[in-house]
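Input set for joint prediction.
Command: fold jointly, output tokens.
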Amino acid sequence: MINITLPDGSVRQYESGITAMGIAKSISEGLARKVLAAKVNGEVWDASRPVTADATLKLLTWDDTDGKSTFWHSSAHLMAEAVESLFPGVKFWVGPALDKGFYYDMDLGDRKLSEEDLVALEKKMAELAKQNNNYVRAEMPKAEAIAYFEEKGDEYKLDLLQNLEDGKITFYSQGGFTDLCRGPHIPNTGFIKAMKLTNIAGAYWKGDEKNKQLTRVYGVSFPNQKELDEYLLMLEEAKKRDHRKLGKELGIYTMDDEVGPGLALWMPNGTIIIEELERLAKETEQAAGYKRVVTPHIAKESLYLTSGHLPYYQDSMYPAMEMDGTKYYLKAMNCPHHHKIFAAEPKSYKDMPLRLAEYGTCYRYEQSGELFGLMRVRCLHMNDAHIYCTKEQFAEEFKAVNEMYLKYFKIFGVEKFVMRLSLHDPAKLGQKYIDEPALWKETEEMVRKVLIETGTPFIEVPDEAAFYGPKIDVQIWSIIGREFTLATNQVDFAQGRRFKLEFTNKDNAPETPLIIHRAPLGTHERFIGFLLEHYAGKFPVWLAPLQVKVLPISDKFIPYSNEVKGKLLKAGIRVEVDERSEKIGKKIREAELSRVPYMLVIGEKEMNEGHLSVRRQGKGDTGSQAVDEFIAMIVEEFAERKA
RNA sequence: GCCGUUGUGGCUCAGUGGUAGAGCACUUCCUUGGUAAGGAAGAGGUCAUGAGUUCAAUUCUCAUCAACGGCUCCA
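tokens >
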């Protein structure tokens, strides 16, 4: 007999060799019908795998993250079975579960998949699912597995096998399909009741663009049709919040073929948001002891040779233009210019830390396939600043920058974020990273220490640092689940020396400053793209391009409406009057759709009483208010940047 | 950059081997109406661009450009 400890702490005794499914059945038949897999001693197992020793066990259902991912992994196998039956001779690479769904990479030879093929595959999957085929696990010695795939001529699976230890090679079969697979899987295909193949894409084998491109088919599946329908509905809703759609609808920005891809044109409404963000940044930075600078958009080649950017990032810069025999580049970053400002006058330790800030315009030649609405563009406006400080000041400065992030996040209501500490890869010193092993170690340790001391939650990611030092990227998620690397905070121990930046220390000796690169609000492009999705276009008053729309009931009230508008304008509020001879219902509808935060309905009663009928976007009529009272309220809401 | 899909008035989208249509938006007129679409008339498109096939191309073929979904990349 063995002891099985369940999540509630209870211990049950079973015969050795009992399966998770057997245990589920001993608890209740209903539960057994829902069990997809089990977590045994923390490892996810097939529900049909025998347990032969004491263990802790958690039954996994659709309600568990691990249950879902097992379900989707099994769905990927089901899809592969369908693909194999429709397109014999196909070779498979890998087919994992995703956060939402699954994919399978396959080599279809010369065959191209079409949308119709996906429909046919879905039909086949549904048919195969109904057969209730069990997912059967089998172990095989490595040599036998190699022989099996050599015979099949499957170079992909042979490649996978190379990295697997002998004795642990497992295969899974369901119906007529067998695949090399670590598992685990759900009990049988019958659990998969609803599936949708969402798209076809090319994907390089092993993610390397030098390798052959395989066909990747994405899909998602559910244990019932209702959840699939809900999911599809959710996708529709997400589309409505897409910043590209909202950006167009609300007149925020536009792109034009003749201007060029990735070059956003900011329309009047978008420009108001930009200016509000800059006002916030300038206020915040001034209070934090920053000084503003302005620098040109281009510089000579030699500047980027000095900074070291050119050899590392030439491919991502616009090609040079030549003038009088000298090459000039559009700047892809502001730091070299700022370093030259630091260097322009002799510095003493008394000048440190020196914080130079600029909303700098940068140009980056992103690959054409990378461009994506406002999120990846070729011209960007960065909330940039460089802090030059001594080693002793570093921790405090770095901390202050982190605090600035948090202050901003609070204003914008960003609750979910992750700080990623990006480290260098020692193997790539001298190539991707500046060859200073000791400095890398030292600065990485300094950053880690600050993060730990301030209790900032963070994750470490190797091989993602900047070439001049470790960095912290802040990742956030828009409401529709899109992931953003927004803010960045980087340590730079290299450029100070490359530019021969110095200050005179207390001992009257020259010393090279450490530099912190930071951009808490990222770029206007990416940040406003995020905000559009975050607020679904319903900006808070302080950011709203138009804050108040005055809606006269009829033409008779236009003069009084304009009086009200005048008072609001005087109070610094962005306001317009809808003077069209339309019915009030239509004016309200259009004002609501344009997402203006406040609508003021003015008719006979309001005019006589000096009042306004106030309507809040999305909330409807909020009652009558005296004009001065309303102005005082909205001015306060604006000034305090209320959410 | 690579794979795939798409490209018709400002927007959303029909449609056809014989040079185009709807709704919304726009303009004008009528209407002056109390909390999410009042009515009528009108204007607006060389069907992304270039080449080819054809008596004839927006429709078929190819190329280019751009957008979209991925991959790779992202100081």
